[in-house]
Fold:
Amino acid sequence: MTDEDTIEVITTMPNRYSSLKNEAEPYEKQGNLAIHRIAIPAHKNGFIDQIYAFSVYWMEVQRLVKNQSYDLIYACSARLFTGFLGAKIARRKSIKLYLDIRDILSDTLSDVIKNRLLKAFLLPIVTQIERYTVTSANHLNLVSEGFRNEFNYFKGPITFFTNGIDKIFLETDFENKDVNHPLVITYAGNIGEGQGLEKIIPEIAQRLSGKYVFNIIGDGSTRYKLVSKLQELAVENVQIIAPVRRSELLRYYQKSDFLFLHLNNYQAFEKVLPSKIFEYGATQKPIMAGVNGYAKDFIQKHLPESLIFEPASAESFLEALRNFEPHVVSRELFTAKFNRERIMENMAEDLLRLVEQTGRFMLL
Structure:
């Protein structure tokens, strides 16, 4: 890039959890970089409130870009409709689109929605939107190689730049100087349908009472299911902690003996690669992972000292734990390969190849 290039980022105010408020400026200008942060209504990751929150974002983005011209749009489709928004703007303004896909909504809805009539109504619409979004792109990046065969109709170039490890994790010493008794198992992240924690945590915690305690850090749409199941089984060795800032999260990781990861036992999640794997992998702590499919293959290849069990199966977890001998291993190769700065540098070079001359870029 040159001094003549400009980058405009349009995002939201920090909003992942309604129970954690992070402050940020609505607009920042740093040299040739401009950042717009749109305030959206607070939500708890429920389906309806997410639709309403995104509609606010959609309208505000349309207002901001109405009279602007760009040479390239980068849209991250961790949420399908963010990618769809980027596709709509790219087509309307005849701009090149670099689409970064981190989830496949049609797959998820197919598993999550149990109402047949609702599924029959929604799935064709979502599938059409997905196809429109993908075919609008000039380049696809898929965050998981598990998605490799999902977009065979796309004829352009495809890359596989994964999530990565942030610098702060690489610079933190996670060694716990204290000896925990009982041992501490920590989960940090969303508590939603995708994680299915209520299917595994209450039963294994009950059966490990006196030997292990669990820290569940986060919030989400199915937190109430987890709480209800814990109360039903009278589980006392699970602490549910509201979302915390990263500096505090690092301390929780440091004081833990194991880090816990779980994806619900849905077929759609056999293709995904959770970003939490990279965060956990940087801590040198043993990882307990209830995953199948590509995530399982990835962990076995890059973090082979992990404890892997069948999702939503307490028996599989307990059997794996009985045969598990935790030990500290070097993860230098893992942290070097998946350093986020290195991955982002390579991805940025790839993105810039789409525009040969100096230009103006928009990131959604």
The mean pLDDT is 91. The chain is about 35% helix and 20% strand. The domain at 6-164+339-363 is CATH 3.40.50.2000 (Rossmann fold). Residues 76 and 100 are 5 Å apart (CA to CA).
